[in-house]
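Folds abound. Consider this:
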Amino acid sequence: MFSWTWLIAGTALGAVSVLPFMIWRHKRDEKRTAEATDRAQASERMAEIGQMTSGLAHEFKNPLSTVGLNAQLLSEDIEHLDIDEVEKGRLTKRLDSLSREVERLRGILDDFLQFAGRMKLHKERTNLCEALSELEDFYHPQCDSEGVVMRMELPHQELYADVDQSLLKQAVLNLLINATQAMQGSEGKELIIRLEEKNGEARIHVIDTGPGIEQERIDEIFHPYVSNKRGGTGLGLPTTLRIAQEHNGHITVDSSLGNGSDFTVHIPLLT
């Protein structure tokens, strides 16, 4: 009888001692469920906002194209006006300024649509050496006009990856443009594209001799609309990062003030 009494008392005491933990766990689970629901609803709202803003961006592009076309037509008409050359030059200058702003806004909208829209990858087996060589040929005239010495460093063996070649080129081109802009005003401007294989992945380096980046700002520069460059949209690097991630890759940055920067795109290689 004595032992049964103690057993029942012990069981009751154990149940009482466990009860606060069970209540805490229940409240914790309720809180987690509520937070998960809030996150799901927030995600749905963000998706709706993204669709709406993408639609607005498309709507803005049509009138911008109309404005740009009319500015061009007006510039041509001015040439035939019976007015003095000073007035003609003044009107032409204003229309040229308008056309530049239209093109700038169009570029911002294009960058936004590429960043905000769903990327549709058309992957294919791609020779990375050939793809980067084509990109070098394309960008070389820009380097010549900017006084930048550009060179390519390719491995002896060919490297292949399953990528959307157009998007990959766009990602590297964004890095080239970013590097060229970073070197404006610098001396001894040099731009290097280096391709190498390490640990089963391709590493595409874009190296510049610009002023470099503070360590605390490296993560920040991949956030949308963060740009210190005049006329920059702040979407080039975020778009490049997204393209890399869509290919199951990532980007690393090695930079220090006064020593330039090395932006590296990491993507898996075909085995």
User: Anything to note?
Assistant: The radius of gyration is 29 Å. The mean pLDDT is 79. The chain is about 60% helix and 15% strand. The longest helix spans residues 2-78.
